[in-house]
Amino acid sequence: MATLDAVNGATLEDVHIDEQGHQVKVTLRTREAHNVTDHTLVLQGVTDFSFADHLPGLNSGTTVASVDTEHDTESIRLTFSFGSEAAALTLSCAKVVLRRNRQPE
């Protein structure tokens, strides 16, 4: 998804998991020139969620190295890599909604 290229290099602000609603919200922040943009990815119809972390932990402020996507007819698989090959967040969902909120810094 080309629109997710904008979050490469962003910092992780929050991951909220709604198990009953099968939804995950990932909030990321980017800084450009004199603007801060919060990107909220609302992942709906989540069927698979995994976090591989061989580091002390994934915390707010961790940098997103890349977001890789794979599509098939029924789902989207996203893999967020965080500055190290040892840390990754992977999930499968039916739909991705991206919301952006840009503010002057």
From TrEMBL:
Q: What is this protein called?
A: Uncharacterized protein
**Where does the source fall among the domains of life?**
Bacteria
Taxonomic source organism: Salinactinospora qingdaonensis
